[in-house]
Design a protein that fits this description.
By secondary structure, the protein is an alpha+beta fold. It is 62% helix and 12% strand. The strands form four sheets. Strands 8-9-5-10-11 form a five-stranded mixed β-sheet, sandwiched between helices. A hairpin with a 2-residue loop joins β2 and β3.
């Protein structure tokens, strides 16, 4: 084994390493197709250098001829791949000239691989060659080529000239290809030197095996720059996308907030009475059923007050419906103003009585509604008989104190029916509880109006008023 050709073997390993690396990058990173072309090119160069090393170290003419032939085959495989790499790197479409060259290389590849050896090489000439340089003498077997092989080498020269011209034209507009132009220049010159050696112009070792290293290193450098640019562009795109997603997310959140607010307003419109802005009939029952269930679970009392304006029809007939609406709104305002701040289970505030005029009658979690026409309903939470009675007395007084500038002599009276539900007295039907309060209201009207009747919850068929 001739140590002088070990650098060729080292270059074969370097080319094989780059081939594997770029193949992995291409499949794992999903990068541009140019990386795959470069991987295939490095593989072809690795084969070319390996066959050259084996030819230089062959022990017989026959084995040397085999490696020499395979070296030419790998060169014909590398040639179109170089062209494809350059075009993909420059992002150019395949021209007619390139397609013709690739087809020609394919035909030459099959011919070199399958044709009889004597068609390609002259087997009659002496194949033992000795080269001396720098006091080093190297001996190896190499067959001379047949005329038809000159055509193959001419095809190599045409392909190199075409690829080099493409690179030079691209250099005017794209300075990124300068490293490849430099590497390709070394390769072009080495090919000219090797062709001169093959044609017998002078004796020297072939240097194409070494010049391949320059071309793949410069190509590797150019690809690494492109990869860096690619990843930077990807980061920019990713950051831009993240900003857009963040912007869209904020817009969606704002939109959802607006939708929630609109839904809240719509719900308010559906549940509120348009004249008084109190809860309406449907909303009252919704809250009544919910709080009755809570009352049973948590064992707290609740009460219902039904307020009906006495002689309201006479008010409308004598003073007009507009004044009647004003009376209804004034009573609604009294009920709203009577609402006091939330205090859990009414334990943190003084007791509601007529002796405490500073204390509001209702709490902000009590449910006040306009049941319909001149009727109002109040759902009192945490209120039993004593508390409901105090609230009713106070509200009757506050309504009676109402005065109207347009009709100073007019006073308003109201009747109330009150029902209270104590803990442990099961009731799951809100309508049944309301009917008991309604019967109490009827009794208050029957007793002379402007008063209230309070009764506990009992099954409706057993109630005696």
């Amino acid at each position: 084994m001739q140590i002088g050709f070990f650098p060729v073997l080292i270059m074969a390993f370097i080319s094989a390493y780059l081939s594997g690396r770029y193949l992995i990058v291409f499949f794992l990173k999903k990068v541009q197709i140019v990386n795959l072309h470069f991987s295939i090119l490095c593989f072809a160069i690795a084969c070319y250098d390996l066959f050259a090393f084996l030819m230089y170290n062959a022990q017989t003419p026959d084995s040397s001829l085999l490696w020499q032939r395979l070296q030419l085959v790998s060169g014909l495989f590398a040639a179109p791949v170089i062209a494809l790499f350059i075009f993909s790197l420059l992002k150019k479409h395949m021209s007619l000239i390139l397609k013709t060259l690739i087809l020609s290389y394919g035909i030459a590849f099959l011919f070199t691989l399958l044709a009889p050896a004597h068609w390609i090489y002259n087997l009659k000439d002496d194949v033992l060659k000795t080269i001396s340089f720098f006091n080093i003498s190297i001996t190896y077997f190499e067959a001379s080529i047949q005329p038809i092989t000159f055509g193959i080498f001419s095809l190599f020269i045409l392909g190199i000239i075409y690829a080099f011209s493409i690179l030079l034209r691209s250099l005017k507009n794209n300075k990124e290809v300068l490293p490849i132009v430099i590497g390709f220049s070394f390769f072009f010159l080495s090919c000219l030197v090797d062709f001169s050696i093959t044609f017998g112009f002078f004796k020297f070792i072939y240097i194409t095996e070494y010049s391949f290293l320059s071309i793949i290193l410069f190509m590797d450098y150019s690809l690494m720059r492109q990869l860096a640019i690619f990843y930077k562009e990807q980061e920019v795109v990713q950051e831009k996308l993240e900003r857009q997603v963040e912007k869209r997310t904020k817009e969606i959140q704002q939109l959802l907030g607006k939708l929630k607010e609109q839904n809240k307003r719509l719900t308010g419109l559906v549940e509120k009475d348009s004249l008084t802005d109190l809860y309406n009939h449907a909303a009252f029952y919704k809250h009544l059923n919910a709080f009755m269930n809570a009352s049973q679970r948590h064992q707290f009392p609740l009460s219902i007050i039904i307020i009906d304006i006495d002689d309201f029809k006479a008010i409308n007939d004598n003073y007009g419906h507009r004044f009647g609406d004003s009376v209804i709104k004034s009573i609604a305002m009294v009920l709203k103003k009577a609402s006091r701040q939330y205090d859990e289970k009414a334990r943190n505030k003084p007791e509601i009585t007529l002796d405490n005029p500073e204390i509001e009658s209702l709490r902000d979690y009590d449910i006040i509604s306009r049941y319909g026409g001149d009727e109002f309903t109040i759902l009192l939470l945490y209120c039993g008989e004593k508390e409901a009675s105090a609230v009713s007395q106070r509200l009757k007084k506050m309504i009676g104190d109402l005065r109207f500038p347009e009709f100073p002599g007019v006073t308003i009276a109201c009747s109330m029916g009150v029902v209270y539900l104590n803990p442990g007295n099961p009731c799951t039907n809100g309508e049944e509880l309301f009917k008991i309060a309604d019967k109490a209201l009827y009794q208050a009207k029957k007793n002379g109006k402007n008063n209230f009747v309070i009764t506990p919850f009992k099954p409706i068929e057993k109630l005696q008023l």
